[in-house]
Amino acid sequence: MGFAQIVGGTRHVFPDLRALLACATPFRSGDALAGVAAESAAQRVAAQRALADLPLSHFLHEAVVPYEDDEVTRLILDRHDAAAFAPVAHLTVGGFRDWLLAEADGAAISALAPGLTPEMVAGLTKICRLQDLVAIAAKCRVTTRFRNTLGLPGTLSIRLQPNDPVDDPKGIAAQVLDGLLLGAGDAVIGVNPATDNVDNLCRVLGLLDAVRDRYAIPTQSCVLAHVTTTMLAMERGAPVDLVFQSIGGTQGLNTSFGVSLSVLREAHEAALALKRGTVGDNVMYFETGQGSALSANAHHGVDQQTLEVRAYAVAREFRPLLVNSVVGFIGPEYLYDGKQIIRAGLEDHCAGKLLGLPMGVDVCYTNHAEADQDDMDALLTLLGVAGVTYVMGVPGADDTMLAYQSTSFHDGLYARAALGKKPAPEFAAWLERMGLAERTPEALPAPMTVAGLL
Q1: 434 marked as binding residue
Q2: Which of 131, 163, 195 is the last residue before a domain boundary?
Q3: Would 348 be classed as within a structural domain?
Q4: Distance from C-alpha of 107 to C-alpha of 436, rounded to nearest angstrom
């Protein structure tokens, strides 16, 4: 089935849903690289108008990646909840946008989530301005629990990211101390390992768990190794709180990551069996990023933002504690500059929240992108207004292991102070008990030194 729209006296034709979604996407370098971007601003406007008039129900009858070829497509369509979809089944994409901005409240959006497909949500975000993406996401309520409660209204959590280029325990411990002093770590204390092997994973997990246990910190730890490495660590009895994995929106992309739905299901079940959570059992942590499917040559001619949202269908299958769009990490080949990164971050957050996910965003860029910390300040502030679940906390905003620029512990404090946000309640109470609520060195208890953390 084709689609057409007349703009400026020219009739623009889009042969299928895949082309319509791609041409309606606000410009970004990755779609141009893939050869799927609109050829002109007029064509983009025509596609957006045609998309706005498209019934939401159409997305249930035309797949952008063939059902028979892709397990992600099968997951999306087989898990679709018709009863949850019924309240908006009569709407077009444009009508859905209007309903979300005007009538919908948090309870209605939460109930709707199982009835929405990623392609519906991707289509919606393509016809939204930035203020729409902020306003819609701010209505969404997604709460998850493991050792604390994330996503409550009025909270902004921070992942403490103590990465070290050689996984040096002293380097990791020093960064953990720095982050805790500055109120970070309620989302997770999560290390990206420099070396992905089970011995190193067990060593770093042991360090993080010893710190958490010694000071009775109501949070969770994670070493962001490959899911199969984490399963080996669980077999050895390592203290695994959360299972991490990068995921994507096509079967081919997930295969390139070395995972499948069955592997993720096995890991999820193994983590649940450990019963390490004290207030909940959300045990998975997923990361995603626009452009990853193109870099793996697994995009099927679909635009990168639609594929990003399809990854969220994989995530919600496993009730994760955390999902993170590493929005600017993949590089300027996919998101060229600050403007593209800002929009993509707001799109990803809004789409994830509509699909019922505890969405965080790594507000970040690589050093060869046309972006700087001013752009990150703008995105961080907009995400804070939009109710983002969590952001990253990196010493000095400079990750020396992954070699990219993110947000610092101080940036998290700025966002909380400027927007009246607090940490997760259990973590906030712990900060008070430890004399860290003021986040000053003078308030640090004497035993809690770098030496004491090792």
Answers
A1: no
A2: 131
A3: yes
A4: 35
